[in-house]
Write a structure and sequence with these properties.
The complex is a heterodimer of chains A (114) and B (113). With 114 residues, chain A is mainly β. Chain A is 0% helix and 50% strand. Classes of the chains: A mainly beta (114), B mainly beta (113).
Chain lengths: 114, 113
């Protein structure tokens, strides 16, 4: 089944404890992206990747890191999480990094930083 | 800069129509529409590119007026399954089509029996 998977789905952690949220897609998509969703703010892009080893900042990249060593994986790293990073995170992918390609979203990861 | 969606919320009875608007202050290359049901991931509805074409998907259609930098989503004869939050995602005209979207804050649509 074609899909975008994220792990973990739920995570409660403490301030400063490094964590990684994994994202994987099995559709051979070139483009992958991370979003965070907060009430009243909609979806905001954190980082995106046009292809392997090509990443760039989105609108809210502070406090996050990403890497794209393989086409299928695009992990999101929080080196030192803070409570303002408590949010619902979505990974998305599309076949090509162009406007006419729909994005497929993963199921989401709900992160709480205490 | 996030596009502005209106209304923020709308309640309908089954069979009624609704229009959701999405406006940007920047020149747009494309507008994407997604629907998110409660507790689920956003799901793609349609994409409109520069050119002003109107698209349809069952009883849901959309238009894109690039001169006004606006898009509208039309839901006709709404069904219970249309309930959810609708997001527009816009892409600015600034150096090529990259699928780098900026999403609006969403419109909550509730369809009641």
């Amino acid at each position: 089944e074609a899909q975008v998977t994220q792990n973990p789905r739920y995570l409660i952690t403490v301030t400063g404890k490094k964590l990684t949220v994994t994202c994987s897609q099995n559709m051979n998509h070139e483009y992958m992206s991370w979003y965070r969703q907060d009430p009243g703010l909609g979806l905001r892009q954190i980082y995106y990747s046009m292809n392997v080893e090509v990443t760039d900042k989105g609108d809210v990249p502070e406090g996050y890191k990403v890497s794209r060593k393989e086409k299928r994986n695009f992990p999101l790293i929080l080196e030192s999480p803070s409570p303002n990073q408590t949010s619902l995170y979505f990974c998305a992918s599309s076949l090509r990094p162009y406007s006419y390609n729909e994005q497929f979203f993963g199921p989401g990861t709900r992160l709480t930083v205490l | 800069q996030q596009p502005v969606q209106s209304p923020q919320a709308v309640i309908l009875r089954e069979g009624e129509d609704a229009v959701i608007n999405c406006s940007s202050s920047k020149a747009l290359y494309s507008v994407h529409w997604y629907r998110q049901k409660h507790g689920e991931a956003p799901v793609f509805l349609m994409i409109l590119l520069k050119g002003g074409e109107q698209k349809g998907h069952d009883k849901i259609s959309a238009s894109f007026n690039e001169k006004k930098q606006q898009s509208s989503l039309y839901l006709t004869a709404s069904q219970l399954s249309y309930s959810g939050t609708y997001f527009c995602g816009t892409e600015k005209v600034d150096g090529g089509a990259t699928n780098k979207l900026i999403f609006g804050t969403g419109t909550l649509l509730a369809v009641q029996p």
